[in-house]
Amino acid sequence: MLAAYQKLLDWSKKNKVDNKKFLDKLKKQKPQHLDRLIQDLNDSAFSEIDCLQCANCCRTTGPLLLNKDIDRLAKELKIRPATFTENYLKIDEDKDYVFKSMPCMFLGSDHYCKVYEARPNACREYPHTHQRDQLQKLPLTFQNSLICPAVAKVLMELKTEKLV
């Protein structure tokens, strides 16, 4: 991982308590333009941060897989869904399907996803800062700021907006 990306993650970890308090206050205040603001910050962050230089999400955080994800991945790999489930998945403490191990077995050494077109929906949507209803996603933004340098940058910039 690039040093600049690690610096952003270090900032998030160092300011974990303060960041959590900030997001909790923000959630209570319910700013009207939060979706637009976070979308703009997301676009700015990802204009500077290249996921292929990081891949921390694929190395550390396994996605929750839905049946449609399993079917799509099995089709991509030309195996039966039951075989895919047996070979690659386990059931976690929440009774959800997740990968048996991390880093993701589909992450290449070049940080490209070997099943990118068939990747799980959770991977497609990550890190969620480009979506609507950001107010409800603030707890997820907090968690993702500890994993994704772009989300850490979004949170860092969000804190300068004087919203709370």
Short structural summary:
56% of the residues lie in helices and 4% in strands. It is mainly alpha-helical and 164 residues long. The mean pLDDT is 96.
Structural features, described:
The protein has 164 residues and is mainly alpha-helical. The chain has two domains: 3-58 and 127-159, no CATH class; 64-118, no CATH class. It has nine helices and two strands; from the N terminus they run H-H-H-H-H-H-E-E-H-H-H. It has helices spanning 3-14, 16-29, 34-48, 56-60, 67-77, 81-88, 121-125, 134-144, 149-159; strands spanning 89-91, 97-99. Helix 1 (3-14) packs across helix 9 and helix 5 (67-77) crosses helix 6 (81-88). It is globular, with a radius of gyration of 17 Å.
C-alpha Rg (nearest Å)? 17 Å
Shape: globular
Strand order, largest beta sheet: 1-2
Low-confidence spans: pLDDT under 50, at least 5 residues? none
Helix count from the secondary structure assignment: 9
Biggest beta sheet attributes:
2 strands, antiparallel
Question: How would you state the average pLDDT, rounded?
Answer: 96
Q: Using DSSP, what is the number of strands?
A: 2
Overall number of structural domains:
2
| Beta strand % | under 5%
Structural class: mainly alpha
Helix content: 55-70%
How do the helices and strands follow one another from N- to C-terminus?
HHHHHHEEHHH
Distance between the termini: 32 Å
